[in-house]
Amino acid sequence: MARAFGVGSGLDRISSLALDRFRVQWLALASARNPGSSIAHAGAIASRDGIVRERDAAPSLAALGWSDFFAAQCEPHEAGLIPARVATVHRARMSAISPTGPIRLVLPVHAKTGDYTVGDWVLVEPCTDLLLRRLERKTVLARRVEGSKTPQLAGANIDTLFIVTSCNGDFNAARLERYLALVNESGAEPVILLTKADLVDGAQGFLDEAAALQRGLPVAIVNPLSGDAAAALAPWCGPGRTVALVGSSGVGKSSLVNALTGAGADAQETGDIRESDDKGRHTTTSRSLHAIAGGGWVIDTPGMRTLHVSDAASGLETLFAEITELSPNCRFRDCTHEHEPGCAVQAAVASGAVDPERLARWRKLDAENRARTPAAGAPRGRRR
């Protein structure tokens, strides 16, 4: 019996058998374009009746990022459902990738696509492609925007988040700290990537300043247009791993996605930074999941011009570890580290152990986070 399956403006209704054949063709095409990709090793084969069978379910799911964390959430009665990874989220439709190929998800009645994000794992009913439920996320990147009561989801189940900035007027320590606070809160590993280093003298200064923003923070200089860009990012990529890129428009995020995926016909549109003000132009307008040529997955995100900090208390603690560790030594539990007597942080500033500019930025972000995070009022601190 035929059923609906939307693929752009082309196919409207095809049979389940034809759909399965389409998935086999998609896998073959992906393998030809990216021989080393995780799609190429998805392990799906077609039997004599044309239905896609799994050659080895574990490797294909593992290549998509499946792990024991997600498997443990599946109930015994859900054994017949298909795990799938959300690839795109639009206002009224969603797509996903399963071990057998791409799926145009059928959404339940009253489902809200805003409750899902790229990278989510969902359980899908076979034959109908009906989305039944979403699994708990291992990591999730979210931010609050003006006028929104709920955080805007930017990606889920991400292992490493590349914060991309360029060695020019776009480089801003205070803005990078905002990104770091949100990435820390998400549970993913933050890595700062510096682009356009070939256009300035003394790129080492940018690298040193970025590395000083957080303890143990990896920082790398990469040229998105060079042939070795993918190799430079290889330590954080690989089969089953998911990375994402965030940063201002025009700093090279889409070019890095092209380098990781091998570009080809699905190359992301790129745009340069304006020379007049070092501001970028938006070239990525939506989030999407792409297969990395050497294995793994990458999520490209639109540039963020406004980045508010909220729901990020633990992220700020990690970012400003030197302040976090000294706070318990202050005389007052609710010390603002500004004018209170017996403040251990102010004593460290006076001795040169803590940068006063860092303290000022911590105070600003901490106040912003408290103001923008919906929460019941906590009791005031008391003298120790």
Give me the secondary-structure topology:
Blueprint: E1 3-4, E2 13-14, H1 16-33, E3 44-46, E4 52-54, H2 57-64, H3 68-71, E5 82-89, E6 94-98, E7 101-104, E8 121-124, E9 131-134, E10 140-143, E11 152-156, E12 160-166, H4 173-186, E13 189-195, H5 203-211, E14 219-221, H6 229-233, E15 242-247, H7 253-261, E16 288-291, E17 297-300, H8 313-319, H9 321-326, H10 344-351, H11 356-372
Parallel strand pairs: 12-13, 12-15, 13-14, 15-17
Antiparallel strand pairs: 1-2, 3-4, 5-6, 5-8, 6-7, 8-9, 10-11, 16-17
What report would you give on this structure?
This protein is of the alpha/beta class and about 375 residues long. It has three domains: about 5-135, Nucleic acid-binding proteins (OB fold (Dihydrolipoamide Acetyltransferase, E2P), Beta Barrel); about 160-300, Rossmann fold; about 320-370, Ribonucleotide Reductase Protein R1, domain 1. Helix content is about 25%, strand content about 20%. The chain is built from eleven helices and 17 strands. A six-stranded mixed beta sheet has the order 14-13-12-15-17-16, with helices on both faces. A five-stranded antiparallel beta sheet has the order 7-6-5-8-9. The protein has a two-stranded antiparallel ribbon with strand order 1-2. Helix 4 links the parallel strand 12 and strand 13 (about 190-195). Helix 4 crosses helix 8. It is globular and about 70 Å long. The model is unreliable at about 1-60, about 265-285 and about 375-384 (pLDDT under 50).
